[in-house]
Design brief:
The structure is a single chain. With 416 residues, the chain is an alpha+beta fold. The protein has 9 helices and 17 strands. 36% of the residues lie in helices and 25% in strands.
Length: 416
């Protein structure tokens, strides 16, 4: 069976030296459009106390000279991004009056190279020759150069001539050079069925994921992720300049983002693979309803708002679709304090962060495993009185992220 999905493939630009100056101009123009619209949005907010409507901003910006620096659809995309940023700020402002609105794209007296998106009438793709033609706005066109012709190279396992269609192309400055991101519609083959088993996941901050499989409990700690955040965040702040982020600061921010993305992809790949190998066809994922509105104190809130539970769920969802594992979002209400064996929900049963001791049936368990088992039982309730301890709930397996291989392995394999 095949399913349709959206994928983004990155291509390096082989003729970078020839097109770099042109891409710089487009990236600068995108920043200029953002800044003019941002200033306009500020005036609208001051006058009406309402966030600027995207359609209103587009109508106003069409009369501005910078609008025609880009293809019309590319200019519209900049305004759509700004409108989304204003909406996110407005939503956050309901909870935090000190929240900062979207900023200007400016580093001292210069503008950064913004991402430029080319929709269907802004690019022409030639996948057989690995070339793509990117349109300029009328202000930047010359009689001999109405477009930029980029020659690109993707990973060896990616062939863009085989995708259903390229939806749009983004020119992205990665901090060192321009690269192309191809957003494509693809058909993916899926297996008929992964199995009849059910597993549950408890998502957390220390243990990023704890999985209750039918026959075993597995912890996936986030130690390496925490170390990366500490190192690269410190590197970013240590190199912050008076005129905004320095090149070193932007490098640190980019490297952290790349490592986080790799970690979450590797984590979700490992979990879905385990599901398939163990005959699990249904995966219940804990969903912390309204958790962003909680107040955990200054330090706790910082951890809370960097918790990527929604990102993990989305990765699990689409990877599960590819391998016929149904991923369900289940409210985690009371799963951390309820005994997975007898149902006792006495709050004091949660002795400490990592330990659960039931005052009724005397189950002794790893607290995260108890929560994951409760998630599993939301789909397949265990018979009353079933003994789920037997050492496995209290002493689960631990799979650690191995930096050397970039994969998850059991603790023993990583240590050795």
């Amino acid at each position: 069976m095949a399913i349709k999905a959206t994928r983004t493939y990155v291509g390096s630009i082989k003729n970078h030296q020839q097109v770099c100056e042109g891409l710089d101009s487009l990236g600068d123009s995108a920043s200029k459009i953002w800044n003019v619209a941002r200033w306009t949005g500020d005036r609208i907010w001051d006058a009406t106390s309402e966030i600027p409507n995207g359609s209103v901003l587009k109508s106003y910006m069409k009369s501005q000279p910078c609008w025609k620096d880009l293809n019309a659809q590319s200019s519209q995309k900049v305004i759509e991004e700004l409108s989304d940023a204003f909406q996110s700020w407005f939503d956050l402002r309901q909870k935090d009056q000190k929240a900062n609105p979207p900023g200007y794209r400016k580093h001292g007296d210069t503008r950064p190279r913004s991402t430029v998106t080319f929709k269907e009438d802004g690019f022409k793709h030639d996948p057989d020759n690995n070339r793509v033609r990117l349109s300029k706005g009328s202000n930047l066109k010359e009689h001999f150069s109405d477009f930029l012709l980029c020659e690109y190279q993707t990973r060896p396992d990616v062939d863009l001539s085989e995708v259903n269609s390229v939806q749009n192309v983004r020119a992205v400055w990665n901090g060192d050079e321009w690269e192309l991101h191809f957003v494509c519609k693809v058909e993916l083959e899926t297996v008929d069925s992964a199995g009849d088993g059910v597993a549950g996941i408890d998502l957390g901050i220390t243990n990023i994921a704890t999985v209750a499989f039918p026959d075993e409990y597995v912890l996936y700690p986030g130690n390496s992720l925490k170390e990366d955040k500490h190192y690269f965040t410190r590197a970013e702040y240590d190199t912050e300049g008076e005129n905004g982020p320095s090149e070193q600061s932007r490098w640190a921010r980019r490297k952290l983002s790349e490592r986080e993305t790799h970690f979450y992809h590797t984590l979700t790949d490992a979990i879905i693979t385990e599901c398939v190998e163990r005959g699990v066809g249904t995966l219940a994922v804990s969903w912390p309803e309204d958790v962003r509105e909680s107040d955990w104190g200054k330090t706790g809130n910082k951890k809370l708002h960097s918790w990527a539970f929604d990102r993990i769920y989305q990765y699990l969802k689409y990877k599960g679709e590819m391998r016929s594992v149904e991923v369900l979002k289940e409210n985690e209400w009371d799963t951390s304090k309820t005994c997975s064996r007898c149902g006792d929900d006495t709050k004091s049963n949660r002795v400490e962060r990592g330990l659960y001791v039931c005052s009724s049936c005397e189950l002794v368990a790893n607290a995260d495993c108890n929560g994951a088992e409760n998630m599993r039982q939301k789909i397949t309730p265990s018979p009353h009185g079933e003994d789920r301890s037997n050492g496995c709930v209290a002493q689960p397996s631990t799979h650690l992220f191995d930096r050397e291989s970039g994969m998850f392995h059991t603790r023993e394999q990583v240590v050795s």
